[in-house]
From TrEMBL, chains A, B:
The keyword Signal belongs to this UniProt entry's keyword annotation: yes
Organism: Actinokineospora iranica
Database matches in Gene3D superfamilies: 6-phosphogluconate dehydrogenase C-terminal like domain, NAD(P)-binding Rossmann-like Domain
Descriptive protein name: Prephenate dehydrogenase
Family: Belongs to the prephenate/arogenate dehydrogenase family.
Length: 323, 323
């Protein structure tokens, strides 16, 4: 099993370090915070240059787990000290990471990653080896992704307990704009509209407002880094929301009828619940035949996951929705 | 203690019947569903005409607890059989109820009500005597509301375990548009935008999307009745949301910066949390001096509640926010 060098040991990076170690891999990390606590937990912490030199020497996979604004700086170091390493990341937005890799570490063998797991607490102290158990973990399969790099990164994600969702950088960013970044923007809009109603409105707020504004309590800096980093895709999602809300406004003003809006929303939520309640079918993809990356992307597009490998076969599960 | 006649014995009406009985009041009801179950639970169920005749004879307070589209029909019956009764309702939107009262039962002594309690299950089977414990319960105090009617309805709400929020019909409808109806519209828009992302997006949806779309799983007919019944106030709230979302769109497209949007939303949610964590100061309102209805409305405008009466004094609590 390939060794793992994790750069950035907050909630996600720390959990990758712990999970990969629990899977039996040799691990070490670099961090700008909590180094003593990581060491006290029994893990090797090196400064970034040394961590990357060791990655080159031991042919480790390097996992970038720093916030997006710090990614390019880490990539420069990788270009200097481990320029041909196997590389992935666990940063939310994928487009800017791909651009940074092309610019600063173009000779690495890269497949981007995004584990869909988290919790409200942050930092090393909140990290845990089981954070990814059962979670979806995107590993990007673009036209120019090397199949062996993709597979090795997918194996790391599976070792950490996750199921792997193969998709492109662009499709990932478009999807998370809709289901992760747009929810933050709409929660902020709703919270501001409610607060504009003054103490009377807040005193009457019940579950619908509480749920709809929950993520507005997240630290603004984190939300901004996430949303602004996915600017182009989020703009499309916001335009979609503006169009739908504008249609609701028009219907309310003209006929007073919100049926199309409310029923489309109900259908959307029912689709989510149906997806989550779906049965699972098994499928296998031969990684030696045809266009395996395209086959893998089709699994992701259908809401499926890669859950393991058997020789040259990738083992997949696909949701089976009731008719 | 005045007897209570509840018309409509679903979740809310059934819970009023149970709570008022538990407070020691004589109660009976009328219902189009579950009459056998209500009787089996030990309560008197009459047909609507007889229930209202008994209300007239025993000088009971009549509580309208039917869905908004059925309110006018009940009001006609009240005009026929108990035209001068003390009257309230527990329907969400207040404007259309006030209009119906003026048209069909203008001689009743009316103060509108809206208990801010509920749960996802509906119907008599879901009702419980403790549903309103600690909840806010709006009792409308308009310019033409009779103080003694307001007080008696408030006493019923307090007997049911709630704290009473005094405000006007118009201010109530504006507030619930922001904190109850707009959340449903935005949840519907978000759910539709997410589902438009297909199975890939649904497979990546985590907490922010799940929370933000939770109320989109409500029965569309109930949501439509609620939202469409509050058309004018909801239109204002939707316009506010459209303006804020449009501003976010413009900022994202021009500078890419969402700071104003995200920080205003964070401040709004912080205001909600601060309100809920606030300490409580006591206040008293002399119902025999000055303009007591205006004093009561000021309590509601400050996020306060009436929690009891002592002779001619109304006892209030007001939130005390940390500086």
């Amino acid at each position: 099993m390939r060794a793992v060098c994790v750069v950035g040991l907050g909630l996600i990076g720390g959990s990758v370090l712990r999970a990969a170690a629990a899977a039996g891999r040799t691990v070490w990390g670099a961090t700008t915070a909590d180094a003593d606590a990581v060491t006290a937990a029994g893990f090797d912490v090196l400064d970034l240059d040394k961590a990357l030199k060791r990655a080159r020497k031991e042919d480790a996979v390097v996992v970038i787990a720093v916030p997006l604004p710090s990614v390019d700086g880490v990539l420069r170091k990788i270009g200097d000290f481990a320029p041909r390493c196997l590389l992935t990341d666990v940063v939310s937005v994928k487009g800017p990471v791909v651009e940074g890799v092309a610019r600063f570490a173009p000779e690495t063998r890269f497949a981007g990653g995004h584990p869909m797991a988290g919790k409200s607490a942050s930092g090393w102290a909140a990290s845990e080896a089981t954070l990814f158990t059962g979670a979806a973990w995107v590993v990007t399969a673009d036209e120019d992704t090397a199949l062996d790099a993709w597979r090795e990164v997918a194996e790391l994600a599976i070792d950490c307990g996750a199921g792997v969702v193969p998709t492109t950088t662009q499709e990932h960013d478009a999807a998370v704009a809709r289901i992760s970044h747009l929810p933050h923007v709409l929660a902020a809009v709703l919270a501001a509209c409610g607060a504009d109603g003054g103490p009377l409105a807040l005193s009457l707020a019940a579950g619908s407002f509480t749920d709809g504004t929950r993520v507005a309590s997240s630290r603004p800096e984190l939300v901004l880094a996430m949303c602004e980093g996915n600017r182009a895709a989020l703009l499309e999602a916001v335009d979609d929301a503006l169009g739908k809300l504008g249609a609701a406004r028009g219907a309310l003003a003209s006929t007073g009828a919100l049926s199309a809006t409310i029923r489309a929303g109900h259908a959307g939520r029912v689709a989510l619940d149906a997806y989550r309640a779906a049965g699972q079918a098994q499928a296998m993809i031969d990684l030696t035949a045809g266009d395996p990356l395209e086959e893998l992307r089709l699994i992701g597009a259908q809401g499926g996951r890669i859950v393991g490998f058997d020789g040259d076969l990738a083992l997949a599960t696909l949701p089976v929705l009731p008719d």
